[in-house]
Amino acid sequence: MNLPCILAYGSFVLLFCTLETSGAKYEPNWASLDSRPLPAWYDKSKIGIFIHWGVFSVPSYSSEWFWYAWKGQKIPGVVDFMQKNYPPDFTYADFAPMFTAEFYNSDQWAEIFKASGAKYIVFVSKHHEGFCNWPSKYSFNWNSGDVGPNRDIVGELANSIRSKTDIHFGLYHSLFEWYHPLYEKDKANNYTTQDFVRTKTMPELYEIVNKYKPDVVWSDGDWETTDEYWNATQFLAWLYNESPVKDTVAVNDRWGKNIRCKHGGFLNCDDKYNPGVLQKRKWENAMTIDKFSWGYRRRANINDYLTLKDITKVIATTVSCGGNVLINIGPTHDGRIAPVFEERLKEMGQWLGVNGEAIYESIPWSHQNDTTTPDVWYTAKKTAQGTAVYAIVLTWPKANQLVLGAPSTSTTTVVSMLGYPSNFSWKPNPGGGMTVQIPVIPFDQIPSQDAWVFKIQGLKN
């Protein structure tokens, strides 16, 4: 096996490599599985879209954990909501026929995702409620083929993404289900039995990989027991060695309570994970536009949603430290992407249309954020002329002077702003670094409104 593109940044060695698997066989243990290089497309992509859609989108109240909040945690607000609006004998399963998806148009979704500038998506095939968004052979009457939409939700989206975009298609899958009787039995047996894994979890995983050929398998629901119960290493060895996506698939780290943030492909660690410093391994920041939920909430107000300025800050702070951003939306029960989500995604796409040079296929620089001025984050890119450094500026500089402490200038240093046609003048600072003088730019000629990218070439560092 070749590892042709190991990249070193200071003391860090990052496996952002092209996968070449001729003759490779990965053993079902973490030492072997972790030796597999991450497919190059994943690191280059930087931006993904997460989509949480399921039966929880029907009550669209509280969050995608609605069932557990109602029956497990018995959160007073959720219990009160059910008592006021539904009969006493109403069950969570009664929501499923209301998951109608009559306005679900996967082609329209694909166009929105394309306009967002995202390079991959991760669609929830099954959340912790256990409802499968495809006609699974292993989920009798609790799947989108048998109840609710009576459609192959996953298959339709996979076809649209692949026929209308160049976006990589990925799937989220929850290992466990809150109230499945076989899981509850295995749990009561202290996980010494594996009936749920044998008859439900693993058959589903093999089914979605063979049927839909996802480029991402995003596992979740791992935290109650270890990878041994889930047979995670056996599945991943098959995925890497024999599956139809063995050369292209990327996986995360949620394969057991003892595995997260330690093993797997890229690291999620926690929801909204954003360490703010360069990591030794490739990682992903899975975060939400709705600050309080991954699923759609009818009661959300406009202040509950991230603005484009918020989103560009997340992108800058994540990508500069070597991470990808997975930005979540929650569709409605009838299959619409709410206008607020569509607007945010298209705004992001417009920003990336100007500034994507600093994001896509970038690499971490020697500094992640500036040593003098706050709200400045760096990325870099190797070019034929040397390393181009990008300073992502989240706050417009006072008096139109951008003071930077990290760059080490030379006589050939050139500074420009992405989306603006002219170079900017600059001078070295006495103690190191540089000050960039920004000319007066007419409002209608400023390329961005929420974050600005300065491209610096010809630096010593």
UniProtKB/TrEMBL annotation:
<dbReference type="InterPro" id="IPR031919">
    <property type="entry name" value="Fucosidase_C"/>
</dbReference>
<keyword id="KW-0325">Glycoprotein</keyword>
<feature type="signal peptide">
    <location>
        <begin position="1"/>
        <end position="23"/>
    </location>
</feature>
<comment type="subunit">
    <text>Homotetramer.</text>
</comment>
<dbReference type="InterPro" id="IPR017853">
    <property type="entry name" value="GH"/>
</dbReference>
<dbReference type="GO" id="GO:0006004">
    <property type="term" value="P:fucose metabolic process"/>
</dbReference>
<comment type="similarity">
    <text>Belongs to the glycosyl hydrolase 29 family.</text>
</comment>
<feature type="domain" description="Glycoside hydrolase family 29 N-terminal">
    <location>
        <begin position="19"/>
        <end position="357"/>
    </location>
</feature>
<feature type="domain" description="Alpha-L-fucosidase C-terminal">
    <location>
        <begin position="368"/>
        <end position="457"/>
    </location>
</feature>
<keyword id="KW-0326">Glycosidase</keyword>
<dbReference type="InterPro" id="IPR013780">
    <property type="entry name" value="Glyco_hydro_b"/>
</dbReference>
<dbReference type="Pfam" id="PF16757">
    <property type="entry name" value="Fucosidase_C"/>
</dbReference>
<dbReference type="Pfam" id="PF01120">
    <property type="entry name" value="Alpha_L_fucos"/>
</dbReference>
<keyword id="KW-0732">Signal</keyword>
<protein>
    <recommendedName>
        <fullName>alpha-L-fucosidase</fullName>
        <ecNumber>3.2.1.51</ecNumber>
    </recommendedName>
</protein>
<dbReference type="GO" id="GO:0005764">
    <property type="term" value="C:lysosome"/>
</dbReference>
<dbReference type="InterPro" id="IPR057739">
    <property type="entry name" value="Glyco_hydro_29_N"/>
</dbReference>
<keyword id="KW-0378">Hydrolase</keyword>
<dbReference type="InterPro" id="IPR016286">
    <property type="entry name" value="FUC_metazoa-typ"/>
</dbReference>
<dbReference type="InterPro" id="IPR000933">
    <property type="entry name" value="Glyco_hydro_29"/>
</dbReference>
<comment type="function">
    <text>Alpha-L-fucosidase is responsible for hydrolyzing the alpha-1,6-linked fucose joined to the reducing-end N-acetylglucosamine of the carbohydrate moieties of glycoproteins.</text>
</comment>
<dbReference type="GO" id="GO:0004560">
    <property type="term" value="F:alpha-L-fucosidase activity"/>
</dbReference>
<dbReference type="GO" id="GO:0016139">
    <property type="term" value="P:glycoside catabolic process"/>
</dbReference>
